[in-house]
UniProtKB/TrEMBL annotation:
InterPro entries: CRA_dom, CTLH/CRA, CTLH_C, Ubq-SigPath_Reg. It comes from the Eukaryota. This is CTLH domain-containing protein. Residues 10-67 form the CTLH domain. It comes from Glycine max (Soybean).
Length: 172
């Protein structure tokens, strides 16, 4: 199946955006997202807030306290005027500043890779939806369907699941 060149180009841009956001260069990811499709973040305040909050977390983890505080005041606090939920989120992020070692903060999950991955996945899905592309590749859907069929077959027979290379390798 041949895809148009612009889909391949957009895929490369998405990969760069994804990489920048995961590696801690969120502002570059936001810039590249704007170049790819300007209205994506303009129309999604939740996603933009989450991305900006990742940058705030990066500043806190780098112990750039003054810059983090200024960033929160200039970039995050305007969201709190729009909706109360943002104020609650900002309070959680600001609590990271109270600890010299943010890992000791009760909100430490905000500095973890899981939170970052969740935000970056949301960005990727939003970009895919913007271009009317499927969230999952054909290969991912095939693997999911194969897994379901395998589970159904093993339940029907009432016995052990069919051949599994992984199980064979484990037993040796």
């Amino acid at each position: 199946m041949k895809q148009p060149a612009d889909h391949l180009e957009n895929m490369e841009k998405r990969k760069r955006i994804f990489h920048h956001a995961l590696e801690g260069n969120v502002l570059k990811a936001i810039e590249l997202t704007g170049q790819l499709a300007q209205d994506i973040l303009e129309n999604n305040n939740d996603l933009l807030f989450d991305l900006l909050s990742l940058h705030f977390v990066d500043l806190v983890c780098s112990k750039e306290w003054a810059e983090a505080l200024e960033f929160a005041q200039t970039k995050l606090s305007p969201f709190s005027v729009k909706e109360q939920k943002y104020m609650e989120k900002i309070e959680g992020f600001m609590s990271l500043l109270a600890y010299e070692n943010p890992v000791e903060c009760p909100m430490f999950h905000l500095i973890g890779l899981d939170y970052r991955q969740q935000v970056v996945d949301s960005l990727n899905q939003t970009i895919l939806a913007h271009f009317n592309l499927p969230i999952h590749t054909a290969m991912e859907r095939l693997i999911q369907q194969t897994s379901v069929v395998r589970q159904c077959l093993s339940l029907e027979d009432g016995g052990p699941p069919p051949f599994s290379l992984k199980d064979i390798l484990k037993s040796q």
